[in-house]
């Protein structure tokens, strides 16, 4: 089942994340929706499926994927890798404004700047 959906209005694109019973087999699908489609005869946009625990938009034409090795991979609209960032303790990623992500770890949340590849702030939270 789809566990999350993220819409990019600038590019009319959608990311659908599917969490498998074995988290290591989770995937995401990237769909670019045609801007000029006939409502009487809608096209089915072709999806691009890849492995990943979670995928969220970080900019107009880029999205971040948390992969099985807990690396954040930045990809473009063609689903091509543009950047990789090691985050050994990261369990989840969430949108935190253009160019930033919230990284969920076991006992804290970190505000991370994707461009500069650095932590901006961190807070300890129990029972996260």
Descriptive notes:
The chain is an all-beta fold. It has no helices and 12 strands. The protein has strands at residues 2-8, 13-18, 27-32, 47-51, 54-59, 62-66, 71-76, 81-86, 92-95, 100-104, 108-113, 118-124. The strands form 3 sheets. Strands 1-2-3-4 form a 4-stranded antiparallel sheet, with no helix packed on it. A 4-stranded antiparallel sheet has the order 5-6-7-8, with no helix packed on it. The chain has a 4-stranded antiparallel sheet with strand order 9-10-11-12, with no helix packed on it. The protein starts with a strand and ends with a strand.
Report the average pLDDT across residues. 89
Shape: globular
Report the end-to-end length measured between terminal Cα atoms. 23 Å
Q: Name the helicity range.
A: under 10%
Strand content: over 45%
Largest pleated sheet: 4 strands, antiparallel
Instruction: Give the count of helical stretches.
Output: 0
Order of helices and strands: EEEEEEEEEEEE
Please give the radius of gyration in angstroms. Answer: 15 Å
- The strand line-up of the biggest sheet is 1-2-3-4
